[in-house]
């Protein structure tokens, strides 16, 4: 992930273009197949960007699991501060510290030590360039697009969903 040597080219648009290629391949082999997109975390943003950029490709349903669609963060909020620190640092200790904070606060119930360690280990292996240009860079606000979807949609984001 992010080891292509050209991480600055990664973007939600590029990921949505990749998803379009996959959907086109599925549809070329099985034209009657219905497309239901399932996105977890960043994958929800990719799915929404895909639907926004490719309105001619019919999507029959969307499931978002823990996806953030509104990037209009209040600068006074802790998350903005954490993401700013993350984006402005190449220091390994800082990156580990920030991701540890994120993973300790991203779910309604605490993550198991095993899952937290796995996520932290996977995340710190991502190149700094990819991390800075793809994962945590605020992008277009997709909340209006998400709110106006007219397909069956399940948004799982909290303990009561």
TrEMBL record:
Which InterPro entries does this one have?
AB_hydrolase_1, AB_hydrolase_fold
Q: Which Gene3D superfamilies match?
A: alpha/beta hydrolase (3.40.50.1820)
Q: Where is the AB hydrolase-1 domain?
A: 2-161
Which Pfam families did the record assign?
A: Abhydrolase_1 (PF00561)
Which superkingdom, per the lineage?
A: Eukaryota
What's the protein here called?
8772_t:CDS:1
């Amino acid at each position: 992930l992010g080891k292509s040597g050209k991480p600055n080219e990664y973007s939600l648009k590029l990921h949505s273009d990749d998803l379009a290629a996959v959907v086109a391949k599925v549809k070329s082999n099985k034209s009657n197949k219905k497309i239901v997109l399932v996105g977890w975390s960043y994958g929800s943003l990719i799915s929404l960007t895909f639907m926004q950029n490719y309105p001619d490709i019919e999507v029959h349903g969307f499931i978002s699991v823990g996806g953030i669609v509104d990037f209009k963060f209040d600068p006074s909020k802790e998350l903005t501060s954490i993401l700013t620190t993350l984006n402005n640092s190449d220091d390994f200790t800082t990156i580990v510290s920030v991701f540890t904070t994120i993973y300790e606060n991203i779910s309604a119930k605490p993550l198991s030590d095993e899952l937290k360690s796995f996520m932290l280990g996977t995340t710190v292996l991502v190149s700094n360039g990819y991390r800075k240009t793809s994962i945590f860079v605020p992008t277009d606000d997709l909340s209006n697009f998400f709110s106006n979807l007219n397909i069956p949609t399940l948004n799982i984001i909290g303990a009561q969903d």
